[in-house]
Amino acid sequence: MIKDDAEFSTDLMRGAEEIAHFLFGTESARRKVYHLIATTKFPHFKLGSMICARKSVVIQWIEIQELRHANDNSKLDTKFVRFGNVQN
Length: 88
Prior knowledge:
Strand order of the largest sheet: 1-3-2
Helix content: 55-70%
Order of helices and strands: HEHHEEH
Radius of gyration: 18 Å
Number of helices: 4
Strand content: 5-15%
Low-confidence stretches: 80-88
Distance between the termini: 55 Å
Mean pLDDT: 86
């Protein structure tokens, strides 16, 4: 939870450009932010028409994506190993 206003203001990202800078290191990647929002469950909200996100929530979402894909990849590795053993 947010402890004070200063913490909230440093955690809040306002606009696709600011989110793009946080994620990709450049504000020119704002179209990637729109794509993430349209095609994934990227954690965001709107203040009026402005896209916003909290850094702490985005970091948690990324960690979940990493774990989910690591688990998917370990299942794929197991399938490939089994498939490889069948052919030998």
